[in-house]
Structures are given as C-alpha cells and as structure tokens.
Specification:
Layout: E1 2-6, H1 11-23, E2 27-32, E3 44-47, H2 53-63, E4 67-70, H3 77-82, H4 84-103, E5 111-117, H5 142-161, E6 164-170, E7 173-174, H6 183-195, E8 202-205, E9 211-213, E10 215-216, H7 217-230, E11 236-239, E12 244-246, H8 247-256, E13 263-266, H9 284-290, H10 298-312
Parallel strand pairs: 1-2, 1-4, 2-3, 4-5, 5-6, 6-11, 7-10, 8-13
Antiparallel strand pairs: 9-12
Bound molecules: ligand A2R.
Residues 7, 9-13, 33, 36, 48-51, 71-75, 90, 94, 115, 117, 170 line the site of ligand A2R.
C-alpha cells in the first residue's frame, strides 16, 4: 500500500508519519509547502501547495497513492478571526482542489481521510452533549465554518462521484511540539519561561470557563490509521476522549506540575469574539467500528508538553 500525507509539516504530520512508519508496512509519501522544512528519513517528501491544482494533479498522477490523509489547513481558530479569507481559501478551496483532481483522474479511487474538527458542532444545546455525529453543526467561528463546509463537500463528492471519502471530526489534540497559539502549549510555554526566569511569575490567560475535550495527538493519529482502512465512504467519525474538562482545571493541573508560585491574570486579547461553553465528543461510532480508545492520560500529555517547553522555550 502507498500512503500520502498532505500537509505533513505541521503538528499532526510528524506524529502521523511516525505512527504509520512504526505500524504499517506501507510506502509513505508526505507533502510540505516549499517554504517549510522538515526532516523525516525513510519517507519521500514532496513540495505541494493545495491552492495549485496543476501541482496536485502532477503529484497524484505520478504517485497514485492508495491512501490520502489530508491534513493541510489553516488550523488556528484565533487566526481565522484575523484572516477569514485565507482560512476559507485553504480549508475550502484547497480541499475542493484535491477532491476535483482525484475525481478527474480516470480509474483512480483512493481512500481519502478529510480531517475536520469538533469545533464544527459549534453552538451545542445542553441536551446534545456529548455530541454524536448526527447533531447538525452550528459553527461558531470562521475556522469551524470552513471545516463544516469541507465535511459537506466530502459527503457530496462521496455520494455524487463515488469517492471513498472518510470524514473525521477531531476534538482538541495536544502534545509536545504543538504551536503555542493553542491553549495547552501556550500555558506550558509560559510556565517554562517563568521557571527559567525570563518572564515574571504571572500567567496570562483567556476564558477559563470553556470546557473542551482533549486527546493526546499520538492517540489521534492511531485513530486516523484505523479509519482510513475501516471507515465507510461518506461517513463522519468523531475522535476525542469523550470527556470535557474546563480550561481552569487544565491550568490548575499544569500549575501543579511546577514548584514555582505563579499567579494568573486575565488577558483580554486572548478572549475570542464568540466562545462555545462546552464541547465534548461522543466516540461510540469509531469505537464500534475499530475498538479504538485513547491510551495516553491527560496528566502524562501535560507533563510531556511542559517538559518539551522546558527544553525548547529558551
Ligand atoms: O500554515 P503553515 O505554513 O504552518 O502550513 C500548514 C500547511 N498548509 C498548507 N499545505 C499545503 N498547501 C497550503 N496552501 C497550505 N496552507 C497551510 O498545512 C501546516 O504545515 C499544515 C497543517 O498543519 P498545522 O497547521 O500544524 O495543523 P495540525 O495541528 O497538524 O492539524 C492537522 C489537521 C488540520 O486539518 C487541522 O485543521 C485539523 O487537523 O485539526
């Protein structure tokens, strides 16, 4: 089998490459933007901008991968408020470029995993939690709207053109090496900087009341490997821990890992124009199909992420 990971230079990509290389006997190819660099021995790396349909066509016709993992995205909610047009272009038009190219290659029918987000569900009613895949998404931010649109396009292309598209809605995934625009990485980086004495002993935080469902990125990529093999065409699968935790509790856990006396201060710049109170996944659908379940505890992930920043923040 030949697998292609599109958008592999980001946070999830390196973990997915590692997992697939360790677990499956597949020939693995990965793409990055020409401006990005990343090292990965034993796999083939190609430059690809998903806004360029000619580049997509040349690569897919040359490789004809059996499995395609589509990770390329503008993946930050915060940035999507600041640059909605870029987010729409990459997450919607970029995905469409890939799907259209595939459907126009005669006799080619790969399995494709489209990575969406738990954010798609948006304004969830109290009786809809934990959220299953039947709940109609009501996105509450630009990033979520683009991913909900990607999901709809996947469903349409699967039904109309017979493409084997499997959609996932991944809830918050965390781990070492994640960019500090995401909450866990942000908090851990701040603690590491305070411990190193390069920042005053004050944590700057946003909304601590929101509850989110966090899973270690290594558990998430394991689910991706299973779903691309077993997922039904046109179906959507939630991936999460099944438990929401308040950001306040997360912060308390991270602070308890440090010996420093650290105070907490609200930073209004970190508050979002609209925030959803609770997002928690119902993960029965993937579990019925694959028996997948998260194996790495939240405490372990937080400690490893903090240790990563202790080694790298300075
Ligand atoms: O924005 P950059 O320079 O960090 O590059 C990102 C890349 N990317 C693109 N690749 C090809 N063509 C484009 N036009 C394009 N624009 C951006 O996709 C980055 O290297 C990669 C996505 O990685 P991250 O932003 O680190 O996302 P992460 O955490 O790996 O999440 C993977 C997927 C995304 O679809 C998320 O929305 C979802 O999982 O949660």
């Amino acid at each position: 089998m030949k697998a292609l990971i599109i958008g592999a230079a980001g946070f999830v990509g390196s973990y997915l490459i590692q997992h697939l290389s360790d677990t499956y006997d597949w020939e693995i190819h990965a793409t990055k933007l020409s401006s990005e660099t990343f090292d990965a021995s034993d796999i083939r790396i190609h430059d690809l901008d998903i806004m360029n349909t000619v580049e997509i066509e040349i690569l897919l016709k040359k490789l004809r991968p059996d499995y395609i993992f589509h990770l390329a995205a503008q993946s930050s909610v915060a940035l999507s408020w600041k640059n909605p047009a870029l987010t729409v272009d990459i997450n919607i038009k970029g995905t469409l470029n890939i799907l259209d190219t595939i459907r126009n290659i005669p006799g080619y029918s790969p399995k494709i995993l489209l990575i969406g987000s738990g954010e798609e569900y948006g304004y969830i009613l109290p009786d809809e939690t934990p959220i299953n895949e039947q709940v109609i998404p009501r996105p509450g931010n630009i990033y979520a709207a683009t991913k909900a649109c990607q999901n709809m396009l996947g469903s349409i292309y699967s039904r109309a053109y017979g493409l084997h598209l499997i959609m996932v809605r991944a809830f918050n995934h965390i781990g070492p090496n994640q960019a500090p625009i995401f909450v866990v990485s942000d908090f851990c980086k701040q603690v590491a900087e305070i411990e190193a004495g390069i920042k005053p002993s004050v944590m700057r935080v946003g909304n601590l009341q929101a509850k989110r469902d966090f899973t270690d990125v290594r558990d998430v990529v394991r689910a991706y490997g299973l779903l691309i093999q077993k997922g039904q065409a046109g179906e959507t699968y939630n991936i999460g821990s099944g438990h929401a935790i308040a950001i306040q509790e997360l912060l308390d856990k991270i602070l308890s890992l440090s010996e420093k006396n650290i105070s907490v201060e609200l930073d209004t710049a970190r508050l979002r124009p609209a925030d959803i109170p609770v997002i928690e996944a119902d993960i029965q659908k993937i579990q019925q199909l694959t028996a997948w379940k998260p194996e790495i505890s939240l405490n372990q992930t937080l400690l490893e992420t903090l240790n990563y920043w202790r080694e790298n923040a300075l």
